[in-house]
Design goal:
mainly beta
């Protein structure tokens, strides 16, 4: 997920099953304050030119539950994001034509 424009409040990408890094140096990239009622995990802040990468599948091609994520609502301003989907699955051989 690449943030192309992020002149906004809110709009982060939340991973509810991941733990937020405790080192305060991460606060430039993740929400370190209160995430809001009912929001858990870690929320990556939208920053123009920044990207967040995660795997949706493990090495065996099974869904990686920790990859569960959601785009949080933009409360003010504009956020423009670009999803880049990549595909790799162990043993997959592309067609030869």
């Amino acid at each position: 997920m690449v943030y192309l424009a992020a002149n906004c409040s809110g709009g982060g990408t939340n991973f509810p099953l991941l733990e937020r890094p405790q080192d305060e140096r991460w606060c430039e990239f993740v929400e370190c304050g209160d995430l809001g009622e009912g929001v858990q995990g870690v929320t990556f802040l939208p920053k123009a030119g920044a990207a967040v990468f995660w795997d949706n599948f493990d090495a065996e091609g099974r869904g990686w539950k920790e990859g569960l994520h959601a785009g949080m609502p933009v409360t003010e301003g504009v956020k423009v994001g670009l999803n880049i989907w990549s595909w790799y699955q162990k043993g997959h051989k592309p067609p030869t034509e």
